Structures are given as structure tokens and as C-alpha cells.
Amino acid sequence: MKVTINDVAKHAGVSMKTVSRVINKEPSVRKKTYDIVMQAVKELNYQPNTAARNLAGTSSFAIGLVYDNPNAYYIIDMQNGVLSRCKEEGYELVIHPCSASDPDMQQEIATMIQRSRLAGLVLTPPLSEQKHIIQMLDDLGITYVRLLSGQNNDPEKEQGSTAEHRHNNCIYVDDYAAAYEITEHLINLGHKTIAFACGDAEHKSTTERLAGYKQALDDNQLEFNDALVYGGTYSFESGVEGAKALLKNNNESGITAILGGNDEIAAGALFASRLMNIAIPEQLSISGFEDSPFSRQTWPKLTTAHQANSVISEHAARLLFSKTRGSRSHDKDIITTFTPSVVIRESTGPAPK
Amino acid sequence: MKVTINDVAKHAGVSMKTVSRVINKEPSVRKKTYDIVMQAVKELNYQPNTAARNLAGTSSFAIGLVYDNPNAYYIIDMQNGVLSRCKEEGYELVIHPCSASDPDMQQEIATMIQRSRLAGLVLTPPLSEQKHIIQMLDDLGITYVRLLSGQNNDPEKEQGSTAEHRHNNCIYVDDYAAAYEITEHLINLGHKTIAFACGDAEHKSTTERLAGYKQALDDNQLEFNDALVYGGTYSFESGVEGAKALLKNNNESGITAILGGNDEIAAGALFASRLMNIAIPEQLSISGFEDSPFSRQTWPKLTTAHQANSVISEHAARLLFSKTRGSRSHDKDIITTFTPSVVIRESTGPAPK
DNA sequence: TTAATTTTTGACACCGGTATCATAAAATAT
DNA sequence: ATATTTTATGATACCGGTGTCAAAAATTAA
């Protein structure tokens, strides 16, 4: 029933080590031998036993994906992107949802790494931003890749000694640029009083998006007003609350557009507007951020910044693999900075007079 | 740095086999010995190496979760439920998204099982309903649990010989009852012309929900009308199309309520109503099914049938473990049939006169 | 108290690969 | 053609646990 490397070796008339070489695509195997072995592999339908490889090898054929993020769409995209690369490389994926509020989190991650002898880790925000996690991974000496909000400027310069400053293992999403772009879109529509309903303050993405928004205002001679910024979380409920707070007293601030920290916030704002009988986009424009499927399922559909999460995570995995194995993959194919692009739908329109 | 079972054995002054017994909670270890070993485990912070256990043991300490379902919320819940049980049991989870349209799917699943020597598999619909998959798993002799739509009636009677008829490895969601309940809710609100926007026809859940709907109509002396059933898919877009089709020609059929096959369909119907300037719930009631977070983020919020996906999947994992290991867990704690319960929100209301 | 039985524990051979290093074969130089 | 270098292959010792079976210790019976 189950075929082992020895069966293949016998069938092909070579040693088991040669079979091992072939399936691991090691160099220095003659073309002819390679073909013979592959033939045997096919004929016997041989599947290398993961456990055995993991045990015998220096590191296992598995990587981990760690996340602390309640956004289902985001997570699924992350998983799928990483999985597709894993499949390509013949690796397994160990997923690890966790919660920053859990005091054992750090220990748990360490345990997981140790038990499964993971070859590497992909960290998504906001975990990827936490110093103590990074510190721990460095202490453990494990390879990892971080998904971050920001830009990968001056890579040479950034090769700092401390982990937080070493940026050659990061994939960036340029939220700053995207927020700038989307704010500009609103400005171009004639909006002058644009509010921003932020996500969690601790997330780097919030800071970045806020900065991009500010810069866009500034570059267009619009004054930044602190009262137009609502600090919340990346959730629908926060969007509802945010919109209510921003538009209080019959919109005394004269807001004509709200930039949502993400699609959920925007959807919440949409919901609140509905409650307050505000027509979108005639009386108020609302934009989201991320372009999750969600943004196409609201009324009206959301203008947002498209973020190709599964592509991003696939590249994160690519980068990770380029660091673990003898970098079989070409680092050059790896994109390390992604900039979401504005997708215009029906939730934004010309500013009312 | 890394602690092995031998280190623990030495530290505790016992043989490595005894340590193995302790960490596997095997019987016939004296309390005193057990304590000594556990003490050593703690002191050294020993983590058993998964790969080694998998290799040496009869089956590996990992189970698989296979799904072909585009619904992110659903998948995340499934994963989390199964994961929580895995954590409890010290197992790993191998996730495997796949697509029925992929001709290699079956082979891929077989490969995964073989490579990772999975101890078992949890199958979610619609994969869990496909005969050829079940057949294959049986041929492979692997343990699995299926999540199905239906009821677990007459368990004794059902112990048929063919896999499709063996139902002691299934967890049921009673969509029939839930659909009945939700339809009745609409009827009680005075609705007499209730449409049903179905999900994918091949899904058992569609058949079940439809049957429950029909029965409720019947029990309340309302005639079933084929023209009021729209056959679509479990997607937002389908909900939009479905509502448009059902309400065509200025709602010539006089529909006052639409039962959505799931929340996404309902959200789509909501969207379409908006397009057609139909007020919800004043002119038309719409209900969803599943109670995904989604149903709380539409306007108005959806009346729906709450389905505790993460609990369901946790029980699926429970059931699986009860079959794989020496059934350490008590089968009696396992619920095998779940009935979603109606959650009333704002998308349904009294029928218009 | 000793024999018989049951419960605990340990020695050791695997599980199915990879890593190392020696050896054989092929390519190149002399 | 032979010596030398390079490249391809194989023998064998692990990796860190589990399973088997026999030995030792603890219980119970006689």
C-alpha cells in the first residue's frame, strides 16, 4: 500500500540517497538518473513522508502563519496566498490564530515553532509590529517575514543591527500612498471638509493612512482639523459610532466626505448615515480601504483602495522561502512594496454645494 | 537548546519509554512516576517533536480540514472550531482548500493524506456530500467526519453498509427545521406570498431548506408555487439577480417576503430592493440564513437563522478524535445534530396590506 | 513466607527519510 | 594510455520519538 523511498530506489535500481536527491532537486544528479527515478516515482505514485523528512532534515518542511486579526476576508486571503506558494514548494502550512490579549501567546508561538520545527514564519499585522514578538523570534533564531504598513525606502541604510531596524525581511503595504490617493480623489470631487474614521490606534496602518490623508490635505491647501478625526477600531460598529460622532448636531462641522479606515468602518458609516437619513453619495461621500468582497456588498458599493492580499501574502511566502532553502526562488521576482490603488464605486461623488 | 525525550528521561531518572507513556497519558504509569516525569517536563520545558511522533507512531498527530467554499466567515469559523479541539488534543491541523472544478482535487486530497499520514479528516459541505470523495476515503481506509445538512434520525437503522448510508460519522445541521421555523416566522407576520431565493442546487442544504420552507407553507394552508422559487447560487450576486427576477414586472406575483438561501443572498436581495426602490421591511420582508457577521452589517440588519459554525466544527473534531485515538473523549458529550435558531432583526416585519 | 498474578518499567528495534563522507564513474589533463 | 580532477552515487549513522516484548516491582493468593 504505502510506498517508501526504498521501494522507489529498488524499482529504479539506484540507492535511496539518489532518490532523495532527485525529489529534493539537488544538483549533481545526472539527467539520465533523474529521469529513471522520476519514472519510478510516477509508476509507484510515491509520496515522500513529511514526518520522516521533517525529522531527518535540519528544518522541517513546514512554515507557520501567525495572525491576530478578526477580519475573515483578510485571513482567508492571507492563507490562500501563502498556501499556494507552499504547494509550489512542497511545504505544509501551520496556521496559528492568536490573540494579543492572551498572556500565553508568546509562549504558544514559541512552542509551536519548537514542536513543529518550523522552517519559518509569516507574521501579519498587528503582530508583525510588536517588538517583543520580533525579539523572541530573533532569540529563537528562526527565519521570519513580516507584513508591514509602510514603505521600503533605502534598504541599504536600513540594515540596522536591531531587529526592528532590519528591514530585508519585510513586505510593505504602502498605506500612506494609498490614503493619499484616495483623499486626493475626494478632494478632486470638490470635497473640502473630509473626515477620517480611524482603525485601531496601535496599528501602524492607522498611523500611515492618517499621515497620507494629512499630506494630501496639506498638498491641496486644505487645513487639517483634529476634530475631523475619529479614533476607533477596525470594525463595523466603530464605523457606526464614528459616523455618528463626526456628524453630530446635524453635521455641525459641515463634513461632506468620510474616509473609512477600512471597508468595515466605511460600511458602518454607511449604516449610520442611513440611520440619520443622509443620502450617499449625494449628501455625503464615504470611502473604504482594502477592497474586501464586503465593499461590493453594501449599498451603495464602496469606493475603496484595492489591496491584493493574496498576492501580497504569496510574496511574503516567496520571500520567506528565499531565505530558508538555498534560495531556489529568485529574490528578484519578489515584490516587497505594494501600493493599493483606488477603486471608484458609488459611495463617493461630487461634493454637495 | 532543544530538549529531547532522552533529556527528560535522564533528568527524571526513568527510561525514555516511560516519559513517552506519560506524555501520551497512557494508563499503567504509577502516580508517583507520573509526577516525577511531569516535573522534569516542566523544568526542562520539554516539547515533544511532532515529526518524530508522527514518524514513529501508527498515525500522525495531525488531522485535515478540507473545504470548497468561498464563504470566508464560514471557513474561518470552521477552522477555529477544529483548531480549538486540536489544541486541546495536541494535534496539528492541515488545512486544504480546494475546488471541485479542479480535476486533480481527488488526487490532491489523497496525496495530502498520504504525505502527512493524517489521523483523520473533517469534510465540510459541499465536499462532504460527494460520493466519489467518500468512496475514495473509504478505500484509503482513513477516518473522517462529515458535516452534512439533514437530521440524524434512527441512528441504528442507518448503519448501512455503504458509506453513504453509514451515518455514525456525521454531524448534522438541521436546515430543514430551521427553514421551517423561519418560514413560519414570516407566516406569523401575515405573509402569504413568500418567495425563496435558493443557493446552489447541488448542495444538500438547498434541498433541505427548500423542503422545510415547503412544509411550513403546507402546514399553514399556503400553496407552494414553483414560480416563487429562484434557483441560484450562495452568493451576493445571485441574491441580486434572484430578487430582480422574483420581483419582476413591478412585483406581479405580489411577493411580500423573500427567504434568502443564506445571508449573502439576502444581502443581495436587499441590494436589489434598494435598486428597485422597495422599502425593507415595510414593503418587503427579507430573511437570511446562517447569521454570519455579515447579517449584522447590512441595512436593515437581517433576520436570519443562527448557525453556530465554530461550535459545530468543534464537535466535528470531537467526533473525529473519538474515532481515532482510544476514544479518550466521551462520545456522549458530542452533539451530532444542530438546529439553527431564528434571530429576528429588522429586515422582516408585518406583511403590507 | 513463598508462589502466582498483575502492574510498571525498560531495552531495543523500528518509522522513512536526510547528512556526511567515502567510493565509483566520468571528464579532463598530462 | 595513464594520472588527475571533477562529478555522481552509495553505505551508513542518525533524527526523536513509538511499539513490542521481556524483565522487574508491586500485589494478591496460597
UniProtKB/TrEMBL annotation, chains A, B:
Keywords: DNA-binding, Transcription, Transcription regulation. It holds the Pfam family Peripla_BP_3. The keyword Transcription applies. Transmembrane segments: none annotated. Residues 3-57 form the HTH lacI-type domain. It comes from the Bacteria. One of its GO terms (molecular function) is transcription cis-regulatory region binding. Coiled coil: none annotated. Gene3D superfamilies: 3.40.50.2300, lambda repressor-like DNA-binding domains. This is LacI family transcription regulator. It comes from Pseudoalteromonas luteoviolacea NCIMB 1942. The lineage of its organism: Bacteria, Pseudomonadati, Pseudomonadota, Gammaproteobacteria, Alteromonadales.
